[in-house]
Design brief:
With 73 residues, the chain is an all-beta fold. The protein is built from no helices and five strands. It is 0% helix and 42% strand.
């Protein structure tokens, strides 16, 4: 399991084990701040490197090593 902290994810690089819409390399473009101060971060925006397409996911999904690898592999 990838050990992660949501406050250190911004601009981190990720590789999808299985390409998503023919995209494999992603960058965390934004860490979405919670609506209420004191709540925990839940969501991040991942940006595909080539197409610049953005998708929002729960940051905890990056812990799943069957779906994501840290860095650009």
């Amino acid at each position: 399991m990838n050990l992660l902290q949501p406050n250190k994810l911004l601009l981190s690089k990720w590789t999808a084990v299985t390409p998503i819409s023919k995209e494999k390399h992603f960058l965390v473009a934004q860490v979405i701040a919670p609506e209420h101060e004191g709540d925990k971060v839940e969501w991040i925006d991942l940006e595909a490197v080539h197409s610049k397409a953005t998708r929002r996911i729960e940051w905890r999904e990056l812990r799943d090593e069957t779906q994501w690898r840290r860095g650009w592999v």
